[in-house]
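Subject: Nitrogenase iron-molybdenum cofactor biosynthesis protein NifE structure
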Amino acid sequence: MSASLKAKIADVFDEPGCDKNQAKSEKERKKGCTKQLTPGAAAGGCAFDGAKIALQPIVDVAHLVHGPIACEGNSWDNRHSASSGSQIYRTGFTTDINELDVIYGGEKRLFKSIREIIEKYDPPAVFVYQTCVTALIGDDIEAVCKRAAEKFNKPVIPVNAPGFAGPKNLGNKLGAESVLDYVIGTQEPEFTTPYDINIIGEYNLVGELWQVKPLLDALGIRILSCIAGDGRYNEIATAHRAKANMMVCSKSMINVATKMQQRYGIPYFEGSFYGVADMSMTLREIARLLVEQGADPELKDRTEALIAAEEARAWERIRAYRERLAGKKVLLITGGVKSWSVVSALQEAGIEVVGTSVKKSTKEDKEKIKEIMGEGADAHMIDDMTPRQMYAMLRDAKADIMLSGGRSQFVALKARMPWMDINQERYYAFAGYEGMITMIAEIDKALSNPVWAQVREPAPWALSDSLLREQDAQQLAAEAATA
């Protein structure tokens, strides 16, 4: 691992927004969280994967992976991050290094790949991702990117996050550091308003940002940039002129919010777009911060009027589902902001949460779970549940449905219980007031599906075998009686 990468990792984890590292002594904090993964421990995603999925939703830039083709294949489009314009982010670019490149170095191949992308596609910028192999052979992507930027008069951004550096979450932060170091603050917006905000850690999964944007538009609030969902390079470059930042997923990009506050004096708060109450609270917090930064105080009144109208409409449509879902129990296997924001949304629908995963949650996330669930919340907070434990909980009917990512679905299916995708691979948008209604409707459909009653019944051949055994027993009993 290069000295510059070690220094960057230490800097990333000297994070004022991270309670775990701030609890350390100054000497220990300077070391950072540099514990290396053991073989197989990166099954949930490596640092390269984390950096790629964090930045790939910037839709108008070319994302070039400097490494073997398998690295690009494993990271390409693994989230349903939608775009309202450019589709170049969906194109998989890789240098596809081979054995000779490992021996002689891959820097020339990287430079030629950057040139080819610029000549064919002319994106506003090229992001270059370091991988394990190219980092181990010593390719200096920072130097190549700097030379290419000078040669082609185009921003070429190095993302130095090789997979062996650590887990996916570290990669999220290292990707964010590249944006902080090379993108934010490099351009000025055409104009600014007192109502400009940045949204950080939002990836526009299945178009969720588009369910929130009309609410902000109705209040006259402008999203100056979103980092990174449906993001544009030039917008993110001007993000330093926003009046406030909203942090959606602090686990992945808290360093962007804290460092923008340090460098540019932009205040931030952590909010959620999931659930009626949390959506309303988010709108209030945005209005509060903007008013404190100089916006017209009348913004608060308009926000309250919008919230009242949207909540009334949402509750009217939710009422029919509440009657059918009352008393139902759900097991929530997710992490980060969803570990508490989805809990709130489910409770609003009258559903009891019997357990929520907190493996990928921050201290603030856990505190919010306790605040939402009240006494006994600790009993419902699951740090790391094994598939066997999930199966037992579902089999014993302690939960009526499981909400999780795709990797856990087979546990629910084996237990012959309903399952719904809540993670990034899903096909339905759950953000905002409309998203809350969609989520409840999908849970209702999953629970009401007649297939579950059918699969729990004994198979027809099992019934036949049972009937034959019963007939054989009766015949033997009759023969014994006549003997």
